[in-house]
Amino acid sequence: MISIKLPWRSLFGGSRRRALLINSSRSLSVRNRNSFPWHLTLTQSCLSLFRSDNKFKLSSDSTGLNNMSTFTYPVAKRIDFSENLHGITVEDSYRWLEDPDSSETQEFVCLQNELTTPYIQGSPALASIKKRLTELWNFPKYSCPMKKGNRYFFYKNSGLQNHSVLFVQDSLESEPKVFLDPNTLSDDGTVSLSMKKFSEDGEIFAYGLSRSGSDWNSIHFKCVQTGEDFPEVLEKIKFSSISWTHDHKGIFYSCYPEQQGKTDGSETTSNENHKLFYHRIGTQQSEDVLVVEFPHEPKWRIQGGVTDCGRYLIVTTGRDCQYNNIYFCDLTALPDKTINGKLELITVVDKMEADYEYVSNTESVVVFRTNKEAPNYRLIQIDFNQPAREHWKTLLEADPSDVLDWAACINKDKLIVCYMHDVKNILQLRDLKNGQLLKTYTLEMGTVREFSGKSTSSEFFFQFGSFLTPGVIYRCDIGETVEAEPTVFRQIELDGFDPSLFETQQVFYPSKDGTRIPMFIVKKKTVILDGTNPCLMYGYGGFNISLEPAFSVTRIVFMQHFNGVFAVPNIRGGGEYGEAWHDGGRLFNKQNSFDDFHSAAEYLIANGYTSSSKLAIQGASNGGLLIGACVNQRPELYAAGIAHVGVMDMLRFHKFTVGYCWVSDYGSPEEKAAFENLLKFSPLHNLKVPETGQYPAMLLLTADHDDRVVPLHSLKYMAQMHHTFRDCAKQTNPLMIRIETKAGHGANKPTSKIIDEHSDVFAFLARALNLEFQL
Q1: Which terminal CB of the chain, N or C, has fewer other CB atoms within 10 Å?
Q2: How far, in Å, CA of 488 to CA of 462, rounded?
Q3: Which segment of the chain is annotated as a signal peptide (predicted)?
Q4: 745, 756, 758, 760: the active-site residue
Q5: Would you say 558 and 762 are in contact if contact means Cβ atoms under 8 Å apart?
């Protein structure tokens, strides 16, 4: 993934360009009274936690897990609490579940796990699913080589390691040696490598560690020559980049130094007063220099990045999940070129009305990728000697149909440019001086997953992948001629998977309002389109994030062993067709996302790919909201919903951690018009028994250290769901939640937890939809 962009949109889905497939685990652990006890040993002792005041009820027929028609769900207490919001009375009977540390919330979590885990473990397919997932997952995975100083570095996972290991080699032909193995940092793989940046000379490695999947990080430093760590550790790091000054003496980083209380990812308090600091190597964090703050804007997030030439520090600020301001400081103009205090910034953009991402610069002329007056993005040049808008120049005009996805500088005067055409990547080489097209690289239908190159080198690498291609790493060197063709540097393959037996097709279908929506469909070539096949449809539709073709072992298992069809509709709200596509599915247009998803389901059913009794839908984060809203609106259309870490309370999302950032996509519940719009589709507030038929089988997934979409969303939604259907005799489909321990929103999750989580999801679907695992 491109690491040169400033990650404003990563505050929601984990990536600016594509959504994370959230992972979790079914591991059990003993209660820790100092943290959220998400899992307890499954014994009747758990029930002793529930007092005699009827806060919770459990069916006396505990064996009813095997027959949902005789099963009574646990019922959480309902409090008499309501609020008048913009003239509308809104009940919030489960407000008490917003406190993750209360004994009552802990009791609720315990009972939910007592319900869900036996049901999943009772699936006849579970052992076979996990065995097959483990077998297929056990193949070597590599990243592109990165040249830092005089050495090359790359990541490799031998197969089932919890985290990829960072290797170093003197040349591409020399024997690799382990440089940093994150698997040694914890016994259970819950400490992960999250941020990393080498000094400009490649001699010091700055790296961030995340614990239990939290967005909080600590930054450490390692001497590349000796492998020894420096003594200092930087704490309270969140939503930060790492950027070195070119004298190799220190880094710029962002943190929340004033954050009070817990900072381990299990808290729900808002993050405010982000600040930019400069740290000198060999000193303690207490000596770090505060260089930029905006005390009058406590919700702004601040990023600082040093330009390729080392002369400028570019500072960007963002408030929501789109648009940012730009400032800069000429580091060479500082007295004695020393950073001793707050920096005097020169303003380039002071109105958050567009996105700006630094690409490269030639002396004072800086290139940005922007959607300013260009919904499909363009490249502009801003001369920092004349930064006023009237002096800006266009380097590369926006394409009328294709989205300019990213750009990177190589060989001082060349650009690698990646476009997205109908959700498929196009890779080009262009001239940095005038934007002229020099070469287009031939790609199949898929995605450039990773790029490695720098402005001072003619050599670059990129990794290509697709739904059926695990990964191909290419190397190219344009030092002698720009016509040089990329050659295969490394082919990633896995045993037991023959891609020739499968096929990928892209179709276009009309949505409710007639808009043409693209959808990828992947399946075995032998699948007969008679409507009897199970289908898993995955969606996101938000925050300008695009769902591009990507390889997934779990999807292969579903298609290979359940004869399943996998589908990805690229619904509005994403970035597949630029800012216009994003705008078409956000704010007061959010219902378009749901309509696009419903129409995708109707297309699959009408064309024989599946039937409503075999159609499962899945989404994570904003995609979890998608699942919750869609099953509420069209319960007859879906057989099952899998909602990972979803935003389910659309009236209070802005009150926890960084939820306030999402008003750019959802609107603010504090404003009457936005509130009324949110109330129409908020999953928590629109649960009801269907007039005909029953509610789809539901599995919610959340985790104790998710400080992006805090667990209370899923807990309150599940409590309300059980209340709604507790007296509904026709509701035989299971309604359950899986609550993970020592995990977060999904990033950097260890392999063991990923395999466990996906095994549980497919075991749940197999049991709920009566699917047979086929050898």
Answers
A1: C
A2: 10
A3: none
A4: 745
A5: yes
Q: Which residues of 603-625 are buried (b: 16+ CB within 10 A; e: fewer)?
A: bbbeeebbbbebbbbbbbbbbbb
Whether this prediction's pTM lies above 0.85 is answered by: yes
Q: In this structure, what token pair is assigned to residue 751?
A: 């392999």
Cα-based angle 581, 587, 591 (whole degrees, multiple of 5) = 75
Look at the alpha carbons of 447, 452, 455, 457 in this order and tell me if their dihedral is positive or negative.
negative
pLDDT by residue (tens digit) across 72-95?
688 899 999 999 999 999 999 999
Q: How far is CA 400 from CA 144, 397, 634, in A?
A: 32, 9, 35
- Reduced to 3 states (helix: H, G, I; strand: E, B; else coil), residue 719 is helix
* Cβ–Cβ < 8 Å for 9, 324: no
How many CB atoms lie under 10 A from the CB of residue 373? Answer: 10
pLDDT at 41 over 50: no
Neighbouring CB atoms inside 10 A of 691's CB total: 7
Helix (H, G, I), strand (E, B) or coil at 206: strand
Q: What end-to-end distance do the CA atoms of the chain give, in Å?
A: 35
Catalytic annotation present for 621: yes
Say if residues 598 and 626 touch (Cβ distance below 8 Å).
Answer: no
Give the start-end residues of each E strand in 493-584: 502-510, 516-524, 535-538, 565-569
Give the chain's domains with CATH numbers. Answer: 44-74+104-134+497-768 (3.40.50.1820)
Residue 48 confidence (pLDDT): 30
Q: Are strands 191-198 and 165-169 parallel, antiparallel or unpaired?
A: unpaired
Alpha-carbon span 342 to 278, nearest angstrom: 10
In whole angstroms, how far apart are CA 94 and each of 91, 140, 679, 728?
9, 46, 17, 20
Q: What is the mean pLDDT of residues 179-195?
A: 97
Is residue 71 within 8 Å of 64, Cβ to Cβ?
Answer: yes
Integer-rounded Cα Rg, in Å, for the chain is 26
Are 750 and 194 in contact by the 8 Å Cβ rule? The answer is: no
Whether 187 and 196 have beta carbons less than 8 Å apart is answered as no
Provide the residue type at 119 as one letter: Y
Beta bridge partners of 426: 419
Residue with tokens 């996509």: 665
Q: How many CB atoms lie within 10 A of CB 54?
A: 9
Residues in contact with 29: Cβ distance below 8 Å, sequence separation at least 6, in sequence order: 38, 39, 741, 742
Helix (H) or strand (E) holding 407: strand 403-410
Structure tokens at 555: 């999807």
Q: Which amino acid is at 532?
A: T
Decide the pairing of beta strands 459-465 and 471-477: antiparallel
Looking at 472-589, list the stretches that DSSP marks H as alpha helix, in order from N- to C-terminal side: 553-561, 578-583
Please indicate whether residue 760 is annotated as part of the active site.
no
Question: For residue 709, with 0-12 CB atoms within 10 Å meaning exposed, 13-18 middle and 19 or more buried, which class applies?
Answer: buried
Q: Which of 704, 706, 707, 760 is catalytic?
A: 706
List C-alpha distances in Å: 571 to 434, 511, 592, 623, 765.
Answer: 35, 9, 8, 11, 24
Query: Strand, coil or helix: what is 367?
Result: strand
For 44, 157, 464, 502, 503, the CA distances from 492, given in Å and listed in that order, are 47, 11, 10, 18, 19
Give the model's pLDDT for residue 53: 35
* CB contact set of 64 (below 8 Å; sequence gap of 6+): 70, 71, 72
pLDDT digits (tens, 9 = 90+) for 255-265: 999 999 999 99
CB 472 within 8 A of CB 465: yes
* Tally of residues, the chain: 775
**Rounded-to-integer distance, Cα 689 and Cα 186, Å:** 46
Q: How many helices (H) and strands (E) does the chain have?
A: 11, 41
Instruction: State the average pLDDT over residues 220-246.
Output: 98
- pLDDT digits 0-9 by tens, 570-581: 999 999 999 999
d(Cα 645, Cα 711) in Å, to the nearest integer?
A: 7
Active site residue: 212, 218, 621, 682, which one?
A: 621
Q: How far is CA 454 from the centre of its chain?
A: 26
